[in-house]
Recover the amino acids of this structure.
């Protein structure tokens, strides 16, 4: 019997075999895992050194001939035999390892159950249809889709990572990152970074937790794609789309302390991702993405089947549990990769559009976005038409209409998606070298256009962002739209790119006042662009733009049927 399509795509990267419609362990591998499950009296695995020998033996029974990372053996021995407390080590080898091995014995059963559950779905007419819609598979580039996996299966697959038994042949060709833990342990040594030890401790804590109580919920991994070709209902926006957008900006909160993962309101929590999901999590890396993957280890399993992201893609992961500093919280995490070391290129229109669209891809929910626009149309149809005669018509998301051709004016309507906001921070600004002021505005634009109800921005004490709260409050006070802010950002970026200003965006758009009471449009526009020979002319253009924005607000407020509340 033919192997179903989803299983066929992932099977070369799993340590099991498929025959006669069943998944099972090779006989010799089964014997090795059984011995490990019986405890150290039978397996003799009672130290890190011997554990690594057992790993090599298990790999041999699976026919895995690729060498593991150099110094991986030393790393396993150093962690379990020197760094781990002796009492804890006895519990690890005497209790935890046998339980993990018994979980491994169930992997074929767990996979058969997984594909059995996703094999059939209701056809809407009381019958069943065969589907591969959410099954574990390689979720290829440019393939929108979801993989839904139980936390029990994720835990079992992560045991495979710990024991380094995932096949690695062909992963590079598929743009898949490494998934075994050999490089993680190889980077651990007495003279290495303390952070490497802490990363491994987080994972060991996870395995100890699941060995005592395995979670029973599911986690979804979604590849989100904005099609590059026009003709789909929602496609990759062009600059004109952002220029013309009249969507109001969402609320913007600023936190100078705290962490994204500690945010209390329901929100998308942003992973400052590498194009390869997980980045250096299983190597030496220890920045925002790697830390997140250690405290939510279930994220790691996405590295098994999610190839690297293209420019028009993002990855959303819903339902992973935080095991380190445990809060019991399950989260929605969105991975978006920023430009790496963009330098002055980041102020060019190509890079601005790339970053804004990347964030938009991660932030928006296609189904809810379209439902939202339909609800807006419904409200408009029931309202007094003269109330909206100052705006362009709202166009519906239907047929083959392009997203870049649509203009929305809903400045007096709710534009939220179930009050789910975005918790984010200095995306692409650390090791990647992005401008934090630029990235904060880009993410605000994307979240607002994606109909998110708020942004909570964690500055991590970044000095250039110390006026972020003041500037965003001023912009909201003057009721700017996405298009207004985009056009001002483009104006600033052009000046910055051409060397006509050295100011950061926040000080350029709202210069520090000599007199705190001076907050009129004339003052707002006496920007530091005056540092150049053309500064007067540039300031005049910016000043004109501000006045246009204020005139637009006043015209709207004085429109038929509107009050001034």
């Amino acid at each position: 019997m033919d192997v179903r399509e989803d299983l066929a795509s992932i099977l070369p990267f799993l340590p099991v075999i498929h025959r006669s419609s069943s998944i099972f362990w090779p006989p010799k591998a089964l014997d090795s895992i059984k011995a490990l499950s019986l405890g150290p009296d039978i397996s003799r695995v009672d130290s890190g050194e011997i554990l690594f020998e057992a790993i090599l033996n298990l790999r041999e029974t699976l026919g895995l001939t690729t060498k593991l990372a150099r110094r991986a053996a030393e790393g396993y021995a150093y962690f379990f035999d020197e760094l781990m407390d002796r009492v804890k080590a006895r519990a690890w080898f005497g209790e935890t390892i046998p339980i993990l091995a018994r979980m491994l014995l169930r992997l074929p059963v767990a996979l058969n159950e997984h594909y059995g559950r996703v094999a059939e779905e209701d056809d809407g007419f009381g019958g069943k249809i065969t589907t591969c819609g959410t099954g574990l598979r390689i979720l290829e580039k440019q393939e929108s889709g979801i993989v839904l996996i139980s936390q029990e299966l994720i835990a079992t697959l992560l045991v495979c990572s710990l024991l380094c038994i995932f096949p690695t042949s062909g992963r590079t060709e598929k743009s898949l990152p490494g998934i075994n833990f050999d490089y993680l342990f190889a980077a651990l040594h007495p003279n290495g970074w303390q952070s490497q030890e802490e990363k491994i401790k987080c994972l060991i804590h996870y395995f100890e937790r699941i060995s005592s109580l395995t979670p029973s919920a599911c986690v979804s991994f979604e590849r989100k794609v904005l099609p590059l070709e026009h003709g789909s209902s929602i496609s990759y926006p062009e600059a004109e789309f952002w220029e013309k957008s009249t969507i109001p900006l969402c609320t913007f909160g600023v936190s100078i302390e705290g962490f994204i993962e500690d945010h209390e309101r329901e929100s998308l929590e942003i992973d400052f991702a590498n194009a390869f999901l997980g980045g250096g999590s299983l190597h030496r890396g220890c920045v925002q993405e790697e830390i997140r993957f250690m405290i939510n280890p279930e994220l790691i399993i996405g590295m098994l089947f999610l190839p690297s992201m293209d420019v028009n893609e993002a990855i959303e992961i819903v339902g992973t549990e935080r095991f380190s500093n445990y809060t019991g919280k399950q989260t929605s995490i969105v991975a978006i990769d920023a430009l790496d070391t963009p330098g002055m290129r980041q102020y060019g229109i190509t890079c601005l559009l790339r970053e804004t669209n990347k964030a938009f891809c991660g932030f928006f929910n296609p189904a809810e976005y379209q439902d939202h626009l339909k609800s807006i149309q419904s409200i408009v149809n029931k309202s007094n038409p003269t109330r909206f005669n100052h705006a362009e018509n709202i166009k519906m998301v239907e047929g083959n209409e392009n997203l870049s051709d649509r203009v929305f004016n809903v400045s007096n309507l709710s534009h939220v998606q179930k009050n789910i906001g975005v918790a984010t921070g200095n995306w692409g600004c650390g090791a990647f070298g992005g401008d934090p002021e630029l990235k904060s505005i880009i993410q605000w634009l994307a979240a607002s256009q994606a109909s998110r109800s708020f942004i909570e921005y964690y500055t991590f004490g970044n000095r250039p962002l110390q006026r972020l709260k003041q500037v965003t409050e001023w912009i909201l006070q003057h009721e700017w739209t996405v298009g207004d802010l985009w056009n001002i950002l483009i104006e600033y970026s052009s000046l910055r790119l051409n060397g006509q200003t050295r100011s950061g965006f926040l000080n350029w758009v709202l210069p520090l006042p000599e007199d705190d009471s001076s907050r009129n449009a004339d003052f707002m526009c006496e920007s530091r662009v005056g540092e150049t020979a053309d500064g007067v002319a540039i300031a005049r253009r910016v000043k004109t733009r501000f006045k246009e924005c204020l005139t637009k607000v006043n015209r709207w407020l004085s429109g038929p049927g509107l009050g001034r509340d």
